[in-house]
């Protein structure tokens, strides 16, 4: 029954060693604090800025990898917990993919939209990200888009050839649903 809180990375995706990202915790709540946890251990208390709190990772190493979650506290009581966000730090060995959106970056509500993530490598699986969501999107086709499907999308690819080889994240594209 408490507020729902979300946790996400910006920019989304796997981080290269030495790279940086920001973990965002957000909720529809008024006042209180977020506590950021990693592997079940409290890392730090984050002040709310508007309805968000942020925790930046700079010069990422394997030490920064792992499961993160946010707890929302008010008056010393935990009112809500986020899902777990898995942060991964990996070398980028593949070329950066190119994301395209068909029929275009501006579509009418109800249209069908297809995302293409193209990489100069055969047998690579790609992941689609929507900024502000912690989960990767499995569907590269959205039937009957609505306004809530709009936002900044990007993709990242992984080759499974004995070892896991990641690409950098594509340049983001903004989908506008009218």
UniProtKB/TrEMBL annotation:
Biological process according to GO? cell surface receptor signaling pathway; immune response-regulating signaling pathway
State which gene encodes it. Answer: Igsf1
Q: Is Signal set as a keyword in this record?
A: yes
Protein name listed in UniProt: IGSF1 protein
Q: Which organism is it from?
A: Halcyon senegalensis
Q: Which UniProt keywords apply?
A: Disulfide bond, Glycoprotein, Immunoglobulin domain, Repeat, Signal
Cite the Ig-like domain residue spans from the record: 3-86
């Amino acid at each position: 029954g408490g507020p729902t809180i979300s946790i996400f990375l910006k920019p989304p995706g796997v981080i290269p060693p030495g790279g940086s990202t920001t973990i965002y915790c957000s909720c529809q709540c008024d006042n209180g604090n977020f506590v950021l946890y990693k592997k079940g251990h409290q890392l730090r208390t984050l002040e709310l800025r508007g309805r968000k709190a942020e925790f930046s990772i700079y010069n990422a190493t394997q030490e920064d990898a792992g499961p993160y979650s946010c707890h929302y506290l008010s008056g010393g009581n935990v009112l809500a917990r986020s899902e777990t966000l898995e942060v991964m730090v990996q070398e980028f060995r593949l070329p950066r993919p190119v994301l395209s959106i068909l029929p275009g970056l501006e579509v009418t509500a109800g249209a069908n939209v297809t995302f293409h993530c193209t990489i100069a490598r055969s047998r690579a699986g790609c992941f689609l990200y929507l900024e502000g969501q912690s989960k990767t999107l499995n569907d590269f086709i959205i039937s009957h888009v609505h306004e809530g499907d709009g936002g900044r999308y990007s993709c990242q690819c992984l080759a499974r050839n004995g070892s896991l080889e990641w690409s950098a994240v594509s340049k983001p594209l903004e989908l506008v649903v009218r």
